[in-house]
């Protein structure tokens, strides 16, 4: 026991009385204790030790076959009033949900150990920091939280004898998909997760706390919790400009955050620094700008497609002290996934643990298989990563997977219009959540699955925040995923996205003109630098990528109207005005 805080102690003992673990272990964050737990997990098979010469400190993990992604249909926001959860969240009355959950949690840790994990989102003691305690019966959760968050007993001191913290209760229970629930009680600062062992459902510091609960805290306290990467672009003069970008799950945040500039930029001295790859907390700073921190301490990244070619910084981040989940396990104790290289291994086990024959056409790694890597391993980690003040944000970038409608890039006319641009985001669904893949759905600000309250109130909060900062970031929208008629990506993407970021940054610092369009400001095609681009990208390609098809956008307006109608009177007037203006522009 490391605390006398009566709120902490009584809650832990109350939860232990319900879940009935055989014993309780207090996690202190020390390597010795973590190593002891890994050793135990090797014995039960919960973790597999990897080749320590090639991948020192690395372990392998498989989640259950029915438990490989977030479960949005089983994720609930249980605030007091249903209307406060809004039409995009599942809701149940708190009393009813507590009763249901306590029945499932009853004795769920029998024969197991309950681990008590004290953790901080952001740097302990910093102005951004928020604290949590997660109770879990999973060693995988303990070792993952130790990578993804700042785990340590200093968290108890930071909470103090009476301070607030987010309570998190997790039990694998029976891994019964029918009794799987991911539940948030914002008014009680409580998260409960049961019958899952998949990261996004059980690493409670991540989406549950740092987005769903934190979005509620941000609304109440005047800041923002967003599903955004943060990166810095250092120009040849040594000046670094920061942007934050919100793309839906598996739509390119980790890749953009660790971008390697194309050679023509590298030669000139441009560098890109990663501050965060998934979550940003943003606050107004004393200088009238918006400042952001990454509250996490590691990366929980999509493995397939990650290669020395596509994202060397991510791959290098996983070379030590990392966890690999649901990827291919090679006979030499290393790992593989689709897109790592063109040589699928023989004699390996697939993500299900079965002998895998790559020639039979099946995938070896699950499409949502992931690596969990310490941020500190990242070769391009920003030196501001540990700055408790965060970094000043010049641009906010929204984006998604759109085969046709959205152009490569456009800029909003002002903050409120930028909020509109975020609110109308749509993207094809991915394997990061269970359900159909490739279906276009509205995903405002990439927060559809992560906003802890009524989406229209969240939009209002964005509008209000714009008024609180004298110098708000400029807001843009990008789309790396336009397809040609044969279904190939037109834009090369990845490192070459730098070319679009350059235009964005120049716009933020009034260094380049733009042209007006019905949807917002667009680059002149010749202002997207295509120098040194391999393949068939020409000025005509850029023109094509920047076209705004009137017919498609009129359909888009219909889709937005239908989407907005779900929120009735709650849609902020500023957004309705933007929609009318968009429609009028298209009809001109
Ligand atoms: P979450 O961790 O789920 O939030 O995902 P993320 O937004 O960090 O996505 P990530 O960077 O892991 O990319 C997901 C998928 O998109 C991978 O398969 C990438 O290869 C692919 N991808 C990323 N950037 C680009 C790009 O610029 N162009 C194309 N065509 N694909 C990309
Ligand atoms: C996402 O799905 O957006 C992720 C992975 O970043 S998870 O932690 O599962 O949410
Ligand atoms: Mn994410």
Brief sketch in words of this structure:
With 588 residues, the chain is of the alpha+beta class. The chain has 3 domains: 6-46 and 70-222, 3-Layer(aba) Sandwich (Phosphoenolpyruvate Carboxykinase, domain 1), CATH 3.40.449.10; 226-297 and 383-587, Phosphoenolpyruvate Carboxykinase, domain 3 (Alpha-Beta Complex), CATH 3.90.228; 298-374, Phosphoenolpyruvate Carboxykinase, domain 2 (Beta Complex), CATH 2.170.8.10.
User: How many individual domains?
Assistant: 3
**How does CATH name the architecture of the largest domain?**
Alpha-Beta Complex
Average pLDDT figure: 97
Strand content bin:
15-25%
Could you name the CATH topology of the largest domain? Phosphoenolpyruvate Carboxykinase, domain 3
Q: Largest sheet, if any?
A: 9 strands, mixed
Helix percentage range: 25-40%
Give the overall form.
globular
List segments where confidence is low: pLDDT < 50 over at least 5 consecutive residues: none
Name of the level-1 CATH class of the largest domain: Alpha Beta
**Tally of extended strands?**
30
Could you state the oligomeric state of the chains shown?
Answer: single chain
SS class: alpha+beta
Number of continuous helical runs:
17
CA gyration radius, whole angstroms:
23 Å
Distance between the termini: 69 Å
Which small-molecule species are bound to the chains here?
Answer: guanosine-5'-triphosphate, sulfopyruvate, manganese (II) ion
């Amino acid at each position: 026991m490391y605390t006398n805080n009566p709120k902490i102690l009584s809650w832990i003992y109350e939860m232990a009385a319900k879940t009935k673990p055989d014993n309780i272990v207090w996690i202190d964050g020390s390597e010795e204790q973590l190593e002891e737990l890994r050793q135990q997990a090797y014995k039960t098979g919960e973790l597999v030790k990897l080749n320590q010469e090639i991948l020192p400190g690395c372990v392998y993990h498989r989640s259950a076959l029915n438990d490989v992604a977030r479960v949005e249909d089983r994720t609930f926001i249980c605030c007091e009033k249903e209307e406060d959860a809004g039409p995009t969240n599942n809701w149940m009355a708190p009393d009813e949900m507590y009763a249901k959950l306590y029945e499932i949690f009853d004795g769920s840790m029998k024969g197991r150990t309950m681990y008590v994990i004290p953790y901080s989102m952001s740097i302990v003691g910093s102005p951004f920091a928020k604290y949590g305690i997660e109770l879990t019966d999973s060693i995988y959760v303990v070792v993952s939280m130790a990578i993804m968050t700042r785990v340590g007993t200093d968290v108890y001191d930071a909470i103090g004898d009476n301070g607030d913290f987010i309570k998190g209760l997790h039990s694998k229970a029976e891994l019964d998909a029918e009794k799987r629930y991911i539940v948030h009680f914002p008014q009680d600062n409580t998260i409960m997760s049961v019958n899952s062992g998949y990261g996004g459902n059980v690493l409670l510091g991540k989406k549950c706390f740092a987005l769903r609960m934190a979005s509620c805290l941000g609304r109440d306290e005047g800041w923002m919790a967003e599903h955004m990467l943060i990166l810095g672009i250092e120009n040849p003069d040594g000046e670094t400009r920061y942007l934050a970008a919100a793309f839906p799950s598996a739509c390119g945040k980790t890749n953009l955050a660790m971008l390697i500039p194309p050679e023509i930029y590298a030669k000139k001295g441009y560098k890109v620094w990663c501050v965060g790859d998934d979550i940003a907390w943003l606050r107004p700073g004393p200088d009238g700008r918006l400042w952001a921190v990454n509250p996490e301490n590691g990366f929980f990244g999509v493995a397939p497609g990650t290669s020395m070619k596509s994202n060397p910084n991510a791959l290098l981040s996983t070379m030590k002290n990392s966890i690999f989940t649901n990827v291919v396990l090679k006979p030499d104790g290393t790992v593989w996934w689709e897109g790592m290289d063109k040589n699928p291994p023989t004699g390996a086990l697939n993500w299900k643990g079965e002998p895998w024959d790559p020639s039979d056409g099946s995938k070896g790694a699950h499409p949502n298989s992931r690596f969990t890597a310490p941020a500190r391993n990242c070769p391009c980690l920003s030196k501001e990563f540990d700055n408790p003040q965060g970094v000043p944000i010049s641009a906010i970038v929204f984006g998604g997977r759109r085969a046709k409608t959205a152009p490569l890039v456009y800029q909003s006319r002002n903050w409120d219009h930028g909020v509109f641009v975020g609110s109308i985001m749509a993207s094809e669904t991915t394997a990061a959540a269970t359900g159909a893949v490739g279906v276009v759905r509205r995903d405002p600000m990439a927060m559809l699955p992560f906003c802890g309250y009524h989406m229209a109130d969240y939009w209002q909060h964005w509008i209000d925040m714009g008024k609180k900062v004298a110098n708000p970031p400029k807001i843009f929208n990008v789309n790396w995923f336009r397809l040609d008629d044969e279904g190939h990506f037109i834009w090369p993407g990845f490192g070459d996205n730098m070319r679009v970021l350059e235009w964005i940054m120049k716009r933020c610092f009034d260094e380049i003109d733009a042209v007006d369009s019905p949807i917002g400001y667009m680059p002149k095609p010749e202002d997207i630098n295509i120098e040194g681009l391999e393949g068939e990208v020409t000025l005509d390609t850029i023109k094509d990528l920047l076209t705004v098809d009137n017919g498609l956008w009129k359909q888009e307006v219909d889709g937005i109207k239908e989407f907005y109608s779900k929120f009735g009177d709650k849609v902020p007037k500023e957004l309705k005005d933007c929609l009318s203006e968009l429609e009028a522009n298209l009809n001109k």
